[in-house]
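tl;dr need the bound structure. longer version: we got a ligand (fe (ii) ion) that a collaborator sent over and nobodys looked at where it sits. i said id run it. heres the input, straight from their email, havent touched it
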Amino acid sequence: MRSMHYSKRTPEKLDIEVRRPHFDLSSDLKEDWFDGSAFKTAFENAFSLLFPIGEKAFIESVRNFEDQISDPKLLKEIKAFYGQEAAHRKVHQQYNEMLCDLRGYDLVHLTKPQVERHQNRYSLLTPYQRLAATVAAEHLTAILADDLMKNKDHFADQGKSVAKLWYWHALEESEHKAVAFDVYIQVGGTIKGRRKALIFATFFILKDTFRSMFIMLKNDGQLWKIRTWMDGINFLFLKPGILRRILIPWLKFFKKDFHPWDHNNLDSIDYWKRQIPQKSTANL
Ligand SMILES: [Fe+2]
Ligand SMILES: [Fe+2]
């Protein structure tokens, strides 16, 4: 289905950069670093737990089709995509291990459903289905990243290292948001396949995130506090209401001729590029 709609592509002027910053997270992760809120901190930490396994699968799913790609621009973007996702995996693995050490969480228990799903159900998928799963997960990360980048007051304290880590990841997710999608189109991936994948990816990402969040809040003695859930309802649905805010961008993926760059956020990317060092190893 090399559709006529897919003359749309990543903007020519975008250069996907691989940065390798280092974040000193120990003082942030031992406390409720996200605005002092137990809920928001546990939610964001739970989200971090998904990346090491998820991003490994993203890279492999694209690599399965790399030899079918002849467009030099897309091939260059694919290499940058591998570099960015590999760096994210590494940094989030360190984040997750440090978090569990500092707060007494069991990393094996927290990631068990995701590990088992990848060993069992995911391994039975066809290469096309795995690529569709990546395309769908990349849409979710891209719309969350865009929301984070354009709401500069998302974190009350942007100076924290952990906040900078999330901005770095959001910037790179935005830069490479169409790479897996463009590969999927070029190798004949179907609209139906990617739509179905978004339903599954959204379900499993939310399920894993909420499960981990419950475990961490329980461990911290915060699960049954009214304040925790008032914060949670506000954060997810009211003010800022991140799930409410991403609903329309999420739905746009179901359009027949959807392309990630229908939403051009180059201005936001340019802003955050100036805040994040390019190839630094310096502490942030
Ligand atoms: Fe990533
Ligand atoms: Fe990504």
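gonna send this back to them w/ a short note. Residues 58, 85, 138, 141, 173, 176 surround fe (ii) ion (ligand 2) (CB under 6 Å).
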